[in-house]
Amino acid sequence: MGFLNLFIVALMPVLKVILITGVGLFIALDRIKLLGPDPNRHLNDLVFYVLSPALAATSLAETVTFRSFITLWFMPLNLLLAFVFGSLLAWFLIKITKTPKHLQGIVIGCCSAGNVGNLPLIMIPAVCEESNSPFGDPAVCSMHARPYASLSLAIGAIYIWSYVYGVMRLYINSNIENGSNSETLPKSSTELVVVPSSNGHNNPTSFDGTIAKMSASKGIMQRMKIISGKVDLKKVFAPTAIAAIVGFIIGIASPIRKLLIGNKAPLRVIDSSAYILGEATVPCMTLIMGANLLKGLKGSDVSRTVIIGIIGVRNILLPLMGIGVVKAALQLGLVASDNKLYQFVLMLQFAVPPAMAIGTMTQFFQLGQCETSVIMMWTYVVAAFTLTLWSTLFMWILA
Q: pTM (2 decimals)?
């Protein structure tokens, strides 16, 4: 597969995202007003509660079975490592750049959550269709491509709408409520109390240890109450994550699968309807990102240093880590050495730009929409080149 062909294959899905973003930007202009603040918010709610859950559920239910999941069991772990490494790198980036508090959750989201669903769904089958692909027979490769990409989308959705959504919500709520200052420990709980001894002289030594332990216990209990008060499990487990779990159950439970999936399934109309809804997710999310970009172009608080840092994390550091993770998994026997396409997908999950769902979350929270759109714009523009180069390197390593 020549470099030019590979460049076009990797470039096309990213260019599609950029072009649709441009459409969203255009229809959000004051002269057009098709996607103003109110329509944008309503469309975002539709994506959050209906379209994205439908996409996650149908993609997983139609393509993943119990047997295939047992074969691909390492993918959830691989994605988890990508999210964790991204979060750690984001934490270092925040400390180095001194990112403002109201943008810290967005930085963590952009660094940890990659577009592990939409781009693989486009890229992996396209790579397989090339006659000189390093992954063997195009027909066999294409047969495995969609299950790999669909499992990546579904597992990624669970992580994005549980872990990343929860982390961003905690950061954003802490800034909205300004609770960090008001929720400090009471002064009396941290003071050292000197209790008089029976002989009339102060003897703090005999009581210091006990009092210190009591103060520490009270402090821990108060912090636990603060955290439990902020974490709302109903909101942490967002509709998309719940839908992905439902789709997984349908896929691996053979009796339920036979009722819903397939041309002869009695209830196939339910799956077909949900599939049609899910197909609208990607364009709607991209239009929202374009509409939010209009605000960012008028003025954004995000600095160049932060944007460059996020680009460095997602486009340089994480792909290098992905190569190391997959190579280590091969050495340990966790991944079959003869399945080159699967290894390519695992590496690709570390190299994709930030997930567009981050823009949906900021729109849902009504905070940081324009900053997120500016970050998305630059990361996707750079990804048009870096994703091509990394894909070429991944194939060269696997070949």
A: 0.74
Give the number of other Cβ atoms within 10 Å of residue 339's Cβ. Answer: 17
Question: For the chain, how big is the Rg over CA atoms in Å?
Answer: 24
The string of DSSP letters for 69-117 reads HHHTTHHHHHHHHHHHHHHHHHHHHHHHHT--HHHHHHHHHHHH-B--S
The tokens describing 202, both together, are 């102060």
Asked if 14 and 383 touch (Cβ cutoff 8 Å), the reply is yes
**CATH number of 56's domain:** 1.20.1530.20
Provide DSSP, 166-193.
HHHHHHHHHHHHTHHHHTSPPHHHHSPP
Provide the residue type at 277 as one letter.
L
Backbone φ and ψ for 354, nearest 5 degrees, come out as -60, 150
Stronger pLDDT, 92 or 172, i.e. the higher one: 92
Number of structural domains (the chain) is: 1
Identify whether 207 is part of a domain. no
Pairwise CA distance, residues 163 & 50, whole Å? 20
- The pLDDT assigned to 278 comes to 87
What is the three-class DSSP state of 36?
A: coil
